[in-house]
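Notes to self after the call with IL:
- keep both proteins in one doc
- input above output, always
- annotate only the second one for now

Protein 1:
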Amino acid sequence: MSVPLLYESHCHTPLCKHAFGQPGEYAARAEARGLRGIIITCHAPLPDGLGIDHRMAPEEFETYVDLVARTRAEFAGRVDVRLGLESDYFPGVEAWAEKLHARVPLHHVLGSVHMQVTHYKAKYFTGDPYAYQQLYFTHVAESAETGLFDTLAHPDLVKNEAPTAWDFARIRPDIERALDRIARTGVAMELNTSGLNKALPEMNPGPEMLKMIRERGIPVVLGSDAHRPARVADRYEQALAQLESLGFKTISFFLDRRRQDVPIADALASLRPAPIA
């Protein structure tokens, strides 16, 4: 039997108000898929009640920490359960995020630009989808440069905001500039398999952007963005095969906020088939 190697590096809890199932159910699915562990990365709170309908409230943060700790104890010796966060970035939130990330030891902090949420759109969307895409990639690059995050989540998510307005050739220069900035920071990029379920059914990022990431030597972390237990490690085999076909040799994850790399061939061999629902 292959030794478990991989972690699920992006999954949620009901505290975000749009995920279902308890962390123990996610951990059990990770065990069934042959994962070494799972890093819970629920949506971090924001100041002033921003986005409260799709994230934990500030006063629920300790509840979240305790929930993950209980799950870690429950699965000790079976699945390595760790505490992380998916933390939003937009200009002006840096001081809040820095204080939040320092409150407890975290293993993996995902930085996300959620351009589809109400408070972000109200501030930045002017009615021009292309300009919005350009601003999105500027903010993605800025998020890496803050030093607040280990990995940038679903880094071309904006393509799903207005799919008919997505023209990769047109936006490519903006992506190139963003990736050049990100490469200088050492921050990783996520390959998020949930993109296959979105308006443009391909992973985030798509293969063209992944090629550009490889050319710049930016490490890649795998995440399913699971909001239900059954989606833990969803289509990891497909994601790893795609990375391998594009010339990537390793896949990464973070523990204690330090990156660890695993050969893709070994990662593929370690997975167990997804249980039939």
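Protein 2 (the one to annotate):
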Amino acid sequence: MIKMNGVIKRYGNLVALNQFDLNVEDGQIYGLLGPNGSGKSTAINSMLALLSIEKGEIKLFGQRITPTSYAIKRNIGLVPQEVAVLEDLNVQENVDYFCGLYVSDYRERKRLVDAAIAFTDLDKFRKFLPKKLSGGLKRRLNIACGIAHKPSLLILDEPTVAVDPQSRNAILEGIKALNQQGTTVLYTSHYMEEVEQICTTITIMDKGKGLLTGTKEELKASVNLGDQVDIRLINHKAEDMDTIRSLPYVVKAELVEDHLKLEMARGESRLASLFHVLERQGIGMAEMSVRQPTLNDVFLEVTGKELRDHV
């Protein structure tokens, strides 16, 4: 569906894409995860031939894309990072205008416009101008304009920036529904929980490079990250820490007041072994929590910096 091989794009001395590869297959919800400035939007603009590239190859639907590849572009829907609607047209007129760029038949276009408005739950707002819509509703309108012509490939560039949690959830559920109806989705974001929630395959990128690619399970397994365990202890002694730190499956251990904080190699059997050690030492447990690695942990491990939500 999308294939980028060794793509290089520079802005003066800034290398925006550095030997960047991407392979999105038919039927996927493919997540492109990275902080602001990592190259996500440049990758999208390059694959749509809105930007010229210095080196590499880009194909969509198995064909090389050029600025005049209109037959290919008719099968693509784009929801840009910045809301791109016409302020002088109401909701229905906006969706009709953008659908009309691809569909000339009036009856067919009306059916598609009605379907897109219903899908994004904007029926009550058909006659509203964009300036009368909340941020979340405006984002939904942006999506309706991008999906009205029923594209087989939908590209969403950070579609949930600055929207409320309810609208964000509605957008994510809508994306999953579109995918179930046969649309392949490329979804870029720096909200890791969104990517983890909906994407079947994920590429983590930074500084124009792809760092890791795989399912969320594969990404977590590809780096040496353990479970974070917090146990509130009873009847413990300071010297017990030497025994705990010596355990082969304990990566890190510290005692903060009565809380034992551990990083442990993953696995239920290792937790059971730890419990036996604590029992032998005469240490009781009042409560325990276990946190498994997240995509944020993976990103921190491979880049040495943490992704933060920018609103």
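Annotation: The radius of gyration is 24 Å. The chain has two domains: 2-221, 226-292.
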